[in-house]
Agamous-like MADS-box protein AGL80 (Cajanus cajan), 197 residues
Amino acid sequence: MARKKVDLTYITNDSKRKTTLRKRKNGLIKKIGEISILCEVEACAIIYTPDDPQPEVCPSNMGVQNVLSRFRRVSEFEQNKKMLSQESFLSQRIIKAQAQMKKLSNATRKKEITLLMLQYLNAGNIFDNANMIDLNDISRLIDKNLGEIERKKNLSRVQEMTPNVENGRITMTQENQAIMNNVQGLKTNVDAMQKQN
């Protein structure tokens, strides 16, 4: 069962906030121990809480001192290389979200164009009022599909041990030939529509 997404806002209820702090702090300390053991890296945490005058350190005072002294020996440029401010973190998230949105938008557009093409194959000429953008996208999709069909056809020719040979040439099945003829006919019609517009 998937966990419910946490709303990242300040918890106003005192007892709930303290409970959350205790659980999250223990979880963080456990993760630091795990990453240190599993990956053999130096990691530490310094946690200041409102109720404790002394900070809680993990794994130990000496361990924290070692990690901090090693960090201070690194140049400032190298220190800042992997550090993220809230602004840079959000910028990275926005860039990733935009890339994902573009990818989903392209996939949706491809499905829309495929649907238009299939409607044309099944119902006849429905592109009388199609715009130039749709016609160009359909043309690109047809070219891509023809290339894929040609690639698969060539691959199957190579893989066949005993190809069907009639009058010295390899023949396709009737079903594949019909699909190829329909797609090529569709390409011809789309090209003609593009020239008219």
Observations:
- Residues 106-196 form one domain.
- The first strand starts at residue 45 and ends at 47.
